[in-house]
Amino acid sequence: MKFEERHLAQLAAVVDVGGVTEAASMLGMSQPAVSRTLSNMEKRLGEPLFIPGRRPLTPTPIARQLAAHGKVILEASRKASQAVQSFQRGTKGVVKIGGVPFFMDAFISRMIGEFQTGFPDIRVDQSYGNVPELQAAIRTNQLDLAICPMALMQADDGFEFIEILPGRNVIACRAGHPLLRRRRHNPKDLLQFPWITPLPGSPLLADLHTILLSIGVSEIAIRYSGGSLLSVLNYLEETDALTVLPHSVIFAFRHSGKVRVLPVQIPQPARSLGIIHMKGGPSIPAAAKLSDHIHTKFKDLRHLILRHENSVVWGG
User: What region holds the HTH lysR-type domain (predicted)?
Assistant: First the structure.
């Protein structure tokens, strides 16, 4: 004998609250509709579901067994409704975010932690990549959004780009670097020291070549390459090497006092750091909340980063 799941759920509701009217109200149904369900079930069973004359309604042994199965269905339905409501409110779910390594390590991972203190039921899956890989991952729904530097003219092919920070590169060195003791700097001074090159595929690598062209050279002494942000900073602190980094990354580690900006004017990239996602893509409310959080945090940071930049006495 087979019973429909919705009928078992209705029986479970009646057993749970002890009355047909109360159960109908809980289920959002009419009292006659629930009464018909119980009557039809009794006809199929050939025996009553409730002991006659008892108030509140007292289920028979078979009714208790059937109601136990219906309760599982009710609970699953309740959880499904809660899941839908949480998803729509953006308070629960999984957000897949990717980004260029240096910015993810310097800023975004901390912002994700701050975000999750307010939304502990949102899981965030973070990955790394450069712009082409990140765009490909968003197109194939492997990522919901990405943080990367991009020229505004690149934000096409169905992507939306939200700027969060203007691009600004600097030459970085350790706090006790010999060049910091000079009052003025000649770009040729940069050739006296070894260099750390950015990760392959990073826009910073192209920026380094632009810097070299601006001082009329094509090669420098490469001492170290391909490291993570932490490894680059650790290496920088122990040597007289130089490297090109976004100014905001130096700002993020300003309290350590171990890495400084070398006050040399260099060519600047025509791009900004921003959040990208697909235009008209699937709506992920939790991803939108995380995106808004990151955007707001950078609004608060922009004037502090600019103040830090203005504190550097730029040489020639």
Answer: 1-60
**Number of folded domains that form the chain:** 3
Any domain includes 315? no
Instruction: Name every residue whose Cβ is closer than 8 Å to that of residue 186 and which is 6 or more positions away in sequence.
Output: none
CA distance 147 to 164: 9
pLDDT, one tens digit per residue, over 141-199 is 999 999 998 875 555 678 899 999 998 999 999 999 999 998 887 778 888 999 999 88
Cα–Cα distance for residue pair 116/106, rounded to 1 Å: 17
Same domain, 221 and 235: yes
Q: Which of 40, 69, 89 is the last residue of a domain?
A: 89
Residue 157 DSSP code? T
Tokens of 152: 């505004």
Q: What angle do CA 24, 28, 34 make, to 5 degrees?
A: 35
Provide the residue type at 128 as one letter. Y
Q: Return the bridge partners of 50, or none.
A: 59
Same domain membership, residue 63 and residue 46 = yes
CB 108 within 8 A of CB 147: yes
Q: List the domain range (segments joined by +) for residue 221.
A: 169-262
